[in-house]
Write a structure and sequence with these properties.
The chain is an all-alpha fold and about 290 residues long. The chain contains 13 helices and no strands. Helix 12 runs antiparallel to helix 13.
Length: about 290
């Protein structure tokens, strides 16, 4: 028994060392960096404790990025999950062209985020873009989607939902294909409707997948920087600045590495709290058998 246990730890050891070296150790170094002042004129900054964190709370740009990101996650996560489930249900049925539809739904996921940003930047271009032409056809007039603070963040949300839904669809599709068809046959014999079967059988059996997708989508929503850099640079007037973009902007544009480190730790704590909440609230209702 002891030899089997030792063998198990030896198998886990390489992965554990890799995670420690490239995840835990950098996170620890970032936490230490956040407790020091930024170096000035080649001189290292002294220990300042939590001052960098207090400065973050006093920074309107950080507060705006936090609010934007919370709103961004609150909209994109459930919307992408619902759309992914709807697409998975559609392509799981025996319909003509099912393979083509699966590829079409998954295609946006295969595109690099920079390419996605460039494509949608053209779509949102006033007068010439596809979205602007469509809105004018239905009488909405010309809208500067990325230049108006009231529409810039919703426009970015639409891009994220379009790109992420196909990725989450794959997980839902795999889970749907693992549901035994005998359950559907038994429900039919009992006279259960499709809606009842979906609500009482399919959704509970999709619980583990839904929990995984929810946690993954939440983390993804707080790790957005690529298409913000490509499309808006956080503007207009910080309307599309998200937390990771704030970290990037603070650390690489203004070279305030210590403040960026503090923002990174705050971001990690937010993600840990959200993941714990999801596992605590949703995980209790998940059935694995």
């Amino acid at each position: 028994m002891e030899e089997r246990r030792l063998g198990g730890w030896l198998f886990v050891l390489p992965a554990a060392l890799f995670i420690f070296a490239f995840t835990n150790l950098p996170l620890l170094a970032t936490a230490v960096t956040s407790l020091y002042a930024a170096p000035i004129a080649g001189h290292g900054g002294g220990f300042v404790g939590l001052r960098n964190y207090l400065d973050l709370l006093a920074d309107p740009g950080f507060r705006q990025s936090l609010v934007n990101n919370l709103l961004y996650a609150a909209v994109t996560v459930p919307a992408a999950m619902v759309l992914a489930l709807a697409m998975a249900l559609g392509v799981n049925a025996a319909i003509p062209g099912r393979a083509f539809l699966r590829l079409s739904f998954f295609l946006p996921t295969m595109l690099p985020m920079i390419a996605v940003g460039a494509i949608w930047l053209f779509f949102y271009t006033p007068q010439y873009g596809l979205v602007d032409r469509l809105t004018r056809l239905i009488g909405m007039g010309q809208i500067n989607w990325l230049g108006d603070p009231s529409t810039a963040l919703p426009a970015m949300m639409a891009v994220a939902i379009w790109k992420e839904a196909g990725f989450f669809m794959i997980f839902y599709l795999a889970a749907l294909q693992n549901i035994s068809p005998q359950l559907r046959e038994a429900a039919s014999l009992e006279g259960a409707s499709r809606q009842y079967f979906f609500r009482r059988v399919t959704l509970p059996l999709l619980g583990p997948t839904t929990l995984f997708v929810a946690v993954t989508a939440t983390i993804s929503a707080f790790c957005v920087v690529d298409h913000v850099v490509e499309m808006t640079q956080g503007g207009p007037d910080n309307a599309t600045s998200l937390l990771l973009y704030y970290v990037y902007d603070t650390g690489f544009r203004y070279w305030n590495v210590n403040s960026a480190a503090a923002a990174t730790i705050v971001l990690v704590l937010i993600l840990a709290a959200l993941a714990a909440t999801l596992f605590g609230l949703v995980g209790r209702r998940v059935h694995y058998r």
